[in-house]
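Sample A.
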Amino acid sequence: MTATLAPLTTPLSPRPEIVRETSAAGAISVEQRLSFAELAYRQSWLRKVVVLAVLAAVWEAYGRWLDNPLLFPTFSATVEAFATAILSSEIPTKALVSLQTLAIGYGIGIGLAALLTTLAIGSRIGTDLLETLTAMFNPLPAIALLPLALIWFGLGQGSVVFVLVHSVLWAIALNTHAGFRSVSNTLRMVGLNYGLRNLSLVRAILIPAAFPSILTGLKVGWAFAWRTLIAAELVFGVSSGSGGLGWYIFENRNALETTNVFAGLFTVILIGLFVENVIFANIEKKTIRRWGMQH
């Protein structure tokens, strides 16, 4: 026996829509205006300036507390000696000599690193050659080769350039090779599907993809070359007939002009900061950040 349902005769009435107004007190603010302190804290260059100002203040305070200019001059005395040497063109001349020598060694090192990396990515024997040479010579301090360089190239620019090439070559070649090897096969296949071959594939796909590692190698190579150059000039002095910043520091140390020694070191630091925060930062901004590889 089955029960039968009675037909629904009364139509369903629609549920009324309830709209509640949000009060101004409970409203959530999506955008919030930052204070001046918060805006200033977001500026990287301003934070670095504050760090440098604090270091200069500590330097000045310690120099005044020690009160021994022969041992540790104050920051203000160093800046005064630096300004005097700048106005007399002594430091610019020395810095130009050092930078010219550095440019020669750095350029040759980049060229040889590019050659070794090309061989390494083109054949297995090239990879074995690069890995073996890097394992042999990368741990070897560049300054340890300077006596040997003096025997081969004599007292002059050639011996300094030789140790500069050694300090630059292995760091750049190792990082560049690691960058090329880290490029995914998917990315290579994308380039091949677009019809890119040989040099066009390297220029359009491999170099942009590996550029973070290449830039890291250039930075490391620059730092190694800069410190090696100053150390070589400090130990052996004259290069190419006229000394650079290292020779300027060495001469003033012999004359017990400690303030001038600090002025020379101050110049070395300023050039290092300029290269790192202006030149390499702009290269990074126009390449890696522009290509979306770094935020």
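Sample B.
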Amino acid sequence: MIPPGARPVSAVEQERRVHRRRQGIRSVLISLASTVALAVVVWFALVNTPGWARVQQSFFDPDVLIASLPRVWDGFLLNLRVLAATAVLVLVLALLLAAVRTLRGPVWLPLRALAAGYTDLFRGLPLIIVLYLVGFGIPGLDLIPERLPYEFWGTIALTLTYSAYVSEVFRAGIDAVHPSQRQAARSLGLSHAKTMRLVVIPQAVRKVTPALMNDLVALQKDVGLVSVLGAVDAVRAAQIQTAAFFNFTPYVLAGLLFVLLAIPTIRLTDWYTARVREREQIGGVV
């Protein structure tokens, strides 16, 4: 039924829509068939390898997987807590660093140099070295009378490293905002702080959101490195269960949990990136 006032769709346009719908269904069917065919070929190639029975017993034992699940899951919850705390701290610290690096005027040179040195240092240091230095070095100074848990120091180390990377992403977004936006805000009487808070940073965050989500996916994996400090997270729990059962299935279980955690974020990143691209291309195709 055609709404009142709406122009009727021509026969040519209806034919185009039917053709596009058929093409879409055909593409989906071909994609499903090719995916299933590839999966079958890979599966048969895998199960027919000479050592498949031994690998299956060592890495894919369902009894060991079920027995290891409670302990690995408890460790995985620790990873989630570290991830949540680190993500919040990284956003705050990275935004502060990016704002400092975009300050203008010679009086801010010491702060800019300090922020630049920070990002250079922690972007150059391997994360595992930062974990060792923070996790075993700072507690050795005896600055804090109480012994803090290893996941606390792991959170600090992850924050130091990832804030250096994310601050550069924020800085790129701030630089991508057209200078006229800043000049217009200043001409309206806004201070530098209000210009950044109300005009520049909201646009910058929108521009770099896909890159930030990619960094979050990388962080989801790297929280497993806190196990090197002794924290009983999913990886460390899997190591303990592997030693108990003389079987590597707990490692597969821990890896599966991390993959299940990352997949929603990856799909959300792809969806948001495609949405931003479509929005930018509106009216750009003749």
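B remarks: The CA atoms of residues 111 and 117 lie 10 Å apart. The mean pLDDT is 88.
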